Amino acid sequence: MFTIPCVFFILWRMIEVKGVHFSYKSDDGAGRNKPVLHGVDLQIEKGSYVAVLGPNGSGKSTLAKLIDILEYPEQGNILVFGNDTKDNDKFWQIRESCACVFQNPDNQIVGTVVEEDVAFGPENLGIPNPELRQRVDDALKDTGLYLMRRRPAASLSGGQKQKLAIAGALAMHPEILILDESTAMLDPISRSEFLHLVEEMRVTRGLTVITITHDMNEACRCEKIFVIKKGVIVASGTPAQIFSNEEVIESAGLDRPVHYRFLSAVSEILGEDIPSDIDINDKKTAAKTAAEMIRAKAPKLKGTIEVAEHRKVESSDENVLEVRGLDFGYDEGGFKLDHIDLDVRKSEILAIVGRSGCGKTTLISHFNALISPKPGQVIIRKDGITLDASNKKDVKKIRSTVGLVFQYPEHQLFEETVYKDVAYGLKKMGVPEEEQDAMIRETTDLVGLPDSVLECSPFELSGGQKRRVAMAGVLVMRPEILVLDEPASGLDPAGRREMFKMIHNLKAHGTTVIIVTHNMDEAATHADRICCLGGGKMLAIDKPEVLFADYRKCKESGIDIPRITSFARNVRHLLRDELPGLEVKGISFDPKESAKILIKAVSEYKGDCHAE
């Protein structure tokens, strides 16, 4: 007699996806469909915190749209706390309880003013004043946008727009919050603040959180992970279960959190198993475990560990771009530049980092004269000729010398086929047709686009492929300087690796590459130098190993350090508590090499407290 109430209780407490299939209709006019999901089954309990991982194009975003009734399953059912998404009578009940934040905030912003945009959702739910006013103010304060509440939404930076989209979702007071790569455009500090806020709301409001992410450290914070590949759930479990499964990680093209990779390296080098009961999300416990393993086993190696030399910078001292005394400020009071002086060297990879709204995109927009420097100078040096970005006569030559790819490459695509899109610039420049084909195919090969996609519509490609097409359209013009705004944002781990492989290939061919990024680990690993902006000022510029070695200076300047540097630093401090005067030489941004540095230091330790 108690069976039926129990069943209803379970349904009410769960999101259930049962045998769901879904296909998108093709735009080729042939009536063909593109299958995306193939019989997906999963359950998410009310109040839980889950991550959905998988490669680009695996169906993660489609699953989010189906839960929020932005799409309907072709086969199967989705129950949201007992309500079937196919039941029209339950449509608004589900929509009111569920909010999605997607990767591209421009697609979600509807208000002209910041506070109006945040009010849009709850206002359409019929929330009256003064509650509406309170919800908007709370959401703006929680996301750090309250002082910008009367600013035009269009005047915000990419990261600030992402915060605005998040604020709009929070103001609706949802029961379910779906985050689809919603932190991809946030700087490390803003990302951490937002995740702490969401986790606090989950506890205080019973919020159910579903995060779709390519950030393995973010996924590590969740209670459960679902891995989806080619539209099928291939694995599920706790973060520890998923990240310890080599087969799942490799087959799905995923990666591990940096602290887990560090701990795995320690385990491999010392021949010591990682304790099975360790909480992979608890970095303090992971650091303590690593320190204990190194303390116990490293002395027996007696200095036999070899550490790889730091990557050598192979760039020239010749400047190809010079910025002098550059000031800039938008009329709406947006991101300012305050007397920027910067030299960019030939054939280097320069990373520009800083918090959202600090002026990164504004700065690079001066590099190819999209914004004319007033006051200040932006000088491009090409073949012994000096080009001035403030001189209108030089603009055409500057734009053929400096290629710029913004953070949403799909906005730069417009032709009906990939081939035509890449060829567009060549035609405009009057390049003879007999030369175009060879240039196009050489460039598409360089960025990793197969010949099979050249006659496809660029709009039917995956996010990673669209990015490559946009880059090919710029690179085919043979620019000597390539500027990339968040080139790896939204790409899965395998895609990110391919992107940076291509960037290093461009450098090897003599191209100077400037990247704007929020990912400090990637900036430290791949850049020859890093330029840090803060509040429109240039706070520092140096080699990564020099910049991030001074933790105190980074903290004072508001610069976040790479995750692996932070974790290794914590392990080093724990070791020094037991081994006074322990001398650690060098810094590495590779987890395995970082582990080797500490193991080598302990194996060579000569102090009184040396392990027996």
Q: How would you describe what is shown here?
A:
There is one protein chain. Residues 1-11 have low confidence and may be disordered. This protein has 612 residues and is an alpha/beta fold. It is globular and about 70 Å long. The protein is 39% helix and 20% strand. It has 3 domains: 3-251, Rossmann fold, CATH 3.40.50; 258-310 and 563-603, no CATH class; 347-372 and 395-542, P-loop containing nucleotide triphosphate hydrolases (Rossmann fold), CATH 3.40.50.300. It contains 23 helices and 20 strands. Helix 11 runs parallel beside helix 12 (283-297), helix 12 crosses helix 22 and helix 22 runs parallel beside helix 23 (591-603). The strands form 4 sheets. The protein has a 6-stranded mixed sheet, sandwiched between helices.
Indicate how many domains the architecture comprises.
3
Which structural class matches the secondary elements?
Answer: alpha/beta
Tell me the overall shape.
globular
Question: Number of helical runs?
Answer: 23
Poorly predicted parts: 1-11
What percent of residues are in strands? 15-25%
Q: Please report the total strand number as a whole number.
A: 20
CATH class membership of the largest domain:
Alpha Beta
**Strand order within the widest sheet?**
6-7-8-3-9-10
CATH fold title of the largest domain: Rossmann fold
- CATH homologous superfamily descriptor of the largest domain: P-loop containing nucleotide triphosphate hydrolases
